[in-house]
Amino acid sequence: MGTEGDFQRRLARAETLPAELYRSEDVFAQERRQLFSKEWLLVAHVSELDGPGATISERLAGWPIFVRRGRDGVLRGFHDVCRHRAGPIVGTGADGTGGPCRVPRLQCRYHGWVYDEAGRLERAPDFGDAEAFDPRALALTPLQVDLWRGFVFVCLDLEAGPLEAALGRLPGLAQDLPLEGYRLHRRVSHRIRCNWKTYVENYLEGYHIPYVHPRLHREIDVKGYEVRAGEGVVTHHAPSRPRVAEPVYDGLWAWLFPNVALNVYGEGLSVERMLPVSPGEMCIEYLFLFSEGADPGDALSMCQEVTEEDRAICEAVQTNLEAGVYDTGRLSPRHEAGVFYFQSRIREILARPA
Ligand code: FES
Ligand SMILES: [Fe+2]
Q: Is residue 82 in contact with ligand 1, taking CB distance under 6 Å?
């Protein structure tokens, strides 16, 4: 990305991404192929995969996948697509939302093919005498799975570099947080009628706080608000106004490319996943974690309120992006370094040969 001065100079001249990128089926398909099937993506907290057969399934940017703890204790990930005629092994809800479940063995739900713990085809019941039928050539398609401090990530690209390299500045920023001491409180998801980038960009700036989030604005001193972008991460510095008893911002709000954010509260945190569903629809999924004995009430109610406010503004922006009058705009050098960083990465990925 060049030097800091170079970044600022480019930001001072920057135009936003064209509106077409927020509504086109072709761009969405390109993002699935060139971005979401290449990057490390957070899917779960490790406590959701406790014990043999514990499984998380979901449609990750349109890719049905699952991660399961085998009877041997090993976490493995696969595309949830049977090699016979593409049936589901685990499946998700009708709306594509998955989540935790228990899967004692890997048997396809369509015609009952059975795969072993490592995804190799073990049995194709009552199949008949097929010629040149090689079960070894019909294993489930695997994913890379790795852990960072209790969070489970997958990468659909088996050639991609290690998770550690993709985490950028995050491990350093989070090194003093007692992440392993927190318990998963709950998962909460919200369907939002906007492109996933619309919501990510909204997360990446505090410029809208005075106009969109009245309660948050009473707590945060927007004059001292700063955003820093680089090395895969965007961080917010959002100082509380004096006399805020339970700060909603406690030292770290960090977003990790392409679609996950960590919001640290007084006694816990939320991890926020921004999941594409279609060009005009996405899903926010929160994992709330708190320390033992903490009262999560305030943090949850503030989060609910802020998410509703963000949903309303992002859906209005999406409607306008789809209307056709707007093509590109300009970015604020004071407030939108995070948006610029994200948009620069998106431009670069979409420019790669398919
Ligand atoms: S599609 Fe899986 S057994 Fe037929
Ligand atoms: Fe917001």
A: yes
- Name the closest-CA residue to atom 4, ligand 1: 111
What distance in angstroms lies between residue 34's CA and the mean position of ligand 2's atoms?
A: 28
77 pLDDT band, cuts 50/70/90, is very high
Ligand 1 within 6 A of CB of 127: no
* Same domain, yes or no: 80 and 122: yes
Percent of the chain with pLDDT over 90: 85
Domain boundary among 164, 192, 208: 164
Q: Is 123 in the pocket of ligand 1 (CB under 6 A)?
A: no
Start-to-end C-alpha separation, the chain:
22
**Which of 96-105, 246-255, 318-327 has the highest average model confidence (pLDDT)?**
318-327
- Give the chain's mean pLDDT: 94
Q: In terms of residue numbers, what domain contains 224?
A: 4-38+167-351
Q: Where a domain ends, among 147, 164, 181?
A: 164
Let me know whether 240 and 143 are in one domain: no
Helix (H, G, I), strand (E, B) or coil at 25: helix
Asked if 54 and 309 touch (Cβ cutoff 8 Å), the reply is: no
Report the predicted TM-score, pTM, of the whole model to 2 decimal places.
0.95
- Ligand 1 in reach of 345 Cβ (< 6 A): no
Ligand nearest to the CA of 213: 2
- CA nearest 41: which of 53, 58, 21, 28? 58
Residue 104 CA, ligand 1 centroid: distance in Å: 18
Note whether 120 and 187 are same-domain residues: no
Task: State how far the alpha carbon of 276 is from the alpha carbons of 123, 142, 199, 290, in Å.
Answer: 35, 22, 10, 27
Q: For Cα atoms 82, 87, 92, give the angle at the middle one, nearest 5 degrees.
A: 110
Indicate if 45 and 15 belong to the same structural domain. no
